[in-house]
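Task: sequence design from structure.
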């Protein structure tokens, strides 16, 4: 796909995830606001369009930095990958981070009171993510797999009890946006996950883990919002 200033951010990253690193470099949100065109983003950020397009092209042509072509995957394979990679990551890291944040609040909360708000924001996000993932694993992903099977075998697809897939996805994406806004606040409160110089290793490790958690979350939501959901909706309509 040739990149132009009319191409949306989500489309660019969906076609080649290696470009995500370039958007992250400029703090351009490719997962929650992937609907914006390159032209819109460059104008808002004051970035020269041709220079950004050149950087994106170099990222795509870098053979040393290979990436999966997620867009070519079937919707059922992608749903499985998201569940087994990103859902498991959230489930494994959440209790560890909650424990570490509670410890930081006890040890350093008096000196760094922002830790209490960071802890609250993460806890709220963790609870919402847990419910969001459960809904996808029990309802949305199984239906996506039924759509894929029906399409592959030429079978009749019964209407789901929740109506159209598109309506269910809108609710999921609203939940994504809520979590995304919380992590923007966490990033701001932590000065982009920079631990104060005079703090202990636990402080530094916790902030590093939070940064990694947000990075994984961005890829997780990008794969759903920009690839899996549009592909599945198109298949359902077909």
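Answer:
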């Amino acid at each position: 796909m040739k990149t132009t200033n009319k191409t949306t951010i989500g489309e660019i990253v969906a076609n080649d995830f290696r470009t995500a690193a370039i958007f992250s470099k400029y703090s351009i949100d490719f997962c929650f606001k992937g609907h914006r065109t390159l032209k819109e983003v460059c104008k808002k950020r004051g970035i020269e369009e041709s220079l950004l397009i050149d950087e994106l092209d170099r990222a795509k042509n870098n053979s040393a930095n290979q990436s999966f072509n997620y867009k070519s995957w079937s919707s059922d394979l992608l749903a499985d990958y998201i569940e087994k990679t990103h859902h498991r990551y959230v489930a494994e890291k959440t209790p560890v981070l909650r424990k570490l944040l509670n410890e930081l609040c006890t040890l350093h909360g008096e000196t760094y009171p922002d830790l209490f708000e960071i802890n609250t924001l993460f806890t709220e996000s963790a609870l919402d993510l847990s419910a969001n993932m459960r809904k996808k694993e029990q309802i949305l992903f199984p239906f996506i797999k039924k759509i894929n099977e029906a399409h592959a075998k030429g079978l009749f697809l019964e209407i789901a009890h929740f109506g159209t897939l598109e309506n269910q996805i809108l609710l999921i994406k609203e939940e994504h946006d809520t979590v995304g806004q919380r992590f923007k606040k966490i990033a701001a409160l932590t000065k982009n996950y920079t631990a104060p110089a005079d703090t202990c290793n636990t402080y530094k490790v916790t902030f590093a883990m939070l940064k990694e958690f947000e990075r994984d979350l961005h890829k997780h939501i990008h794969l759903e919002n920009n690839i899996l959901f549009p592909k599945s909706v198109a298949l359902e309509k077909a």
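The mean pLDDT is 89.
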